[in-house]
Amino acid sequence: MVKAAVLGSTGYAGAELVRILSGHPDAEIVYLASHSYAGKKFSDIYPGMRCVCDMTLSDDDIPKATENADVLFMALPAGIASEAVTPELLEKCVVIDLGADFRLHDAKIYEAWYRKEHKHPELLDEAVYGLPEIHRESIKGKKLIANPGCYTTCTILTLYPLIKAGLIDTSTIVIDAKSGTSGAGRGEKLGSMFCEVNESIKAYGVTNHRHTPEIEQELSLASGEDIVLQFTPHLVPMNRGILSCCYAKLKKGVSEADVRSAYGMYSDEPFIRVSDDLPETKYVKGTNMVDISFRIDGRTGNIVAIGAIDNLVKGAAGQAVQNMNIAFGLDETAGLMTAAGPAF
């Protein structure tokens, strides 16, 4: 059994981690931390977990958390992991960071976008970007795994085959993405209140959303050249889910058959479903699935590629468990083969 510790366990992503790990056949939770609720039971904060996880929450004590843990999940805001993760910590256990501190390869880019100093930039070379469908082999046996962001997971996986196969003009990429309010976290914020969000939709982070350099980094690696793209996220009045609509100009002579062939790279991926049906967030809710489809506009010569994920599962906790499974040589799908409920 892989023994797991979770810091930030009462945030939305952390709570999803606890839910998934509680039903994992090869994992055991040995430590749960929550700075806000230390001393209370996890099930006091999330009553739906009564008799499933009644563990008492501790404070964020990393030395204590890692005494018996094989893996430490850090579901904490940006800036904390870069200070807390050290070479000494990595000697004790595998660290899977659900924050942004080890996703970007260049500390200067991180500091420019997140306005925080990276405390251990030397560890960036030790980290692997934990997007299994692209970096699976690099994740195996790794000690420091940077769990991708939610928008980035959906968008990168939607566009990656087109770029890898050289089918689109990468200078024309425009990404229009929409997320449920849980993406903003569980903290009390005016902009996340029901009366502020309900019956409205808004764009935010226009031209400066922090997931932009992450998307550009991974797609540039696929392309072999630097990619600069337009990314605009939107907040929609639903709890969870991301829908990412990606637009680009197809290169001359590219056919629908070429596009279908490119997406064939996902044919053996357990968590990616490529279909003729257009994705909807309700079909991936509560799952680790990515639904992808596309349409080619013969009139404009553009392709519209659309992806959908649950931002808290494949976009956070589920992918973190998928990374754990790979890192420890477990069945990659263990604990994660959950289908969405009835779509009504």
CATH topology of the largest domain: Rossmann fold
Question: What is the highest CATH level, the class of the largest domain?
Answer: Alpha Beta
Uncertain segments are: none
**Count of helix runs:** 12
Average pLDDT reading: 95
- What's the quaternary structure here? single chain
Return the structural class: alpha/beta
* Helix share, percent: 25-40%
What distance separates the N and C termini?
A: 37 Å
The CATH architecture of the largest domain is 3-Layer(aba) Sandwich
Features:
Rossmann fold, 344 residues, 2 domains, Dihydrodipicolinate Reductase, domain 2, 6-stranded parallel sheet, alpha/beta, single chain
How does this structure look, described?
This protein is of the alpha/beta class and 344 residues long. The protein folds into two domains: 2-148 and 313-327, Rossmann fold; 151-309, Dihydrodipicolinate Reductase, domain 2 (2-Layer Sandwich). 29% of the residues lie in helices and 22% in strands. It is built from twelve helices and 13 strands. The protein has helices at 12-22, 42-45, 62-65, 81-84, 87-92, 107-114, 132-139, 150-164, 194-197, 212-223, 256-263, 313-327, and strands at residues 2-7, 27-33, 71-74, 94-97, 128-129, 144-146, 168-179, 202-203, 230-235, 242-250, 272-274, 290-297, 302-309. The protein has a seven-stranded mixed sheet with strand order 8-9-7-10-13-12-11. Strands 2-1-3-4-6-5 form a six-stranded parallel sheet. β5, α7 and β6 (144-146) form a beta-alpha-beta unit. α1 packs across α12 (313-327) and α8 (150-164) packs parallel to α10. The mean pLDDT is 95.
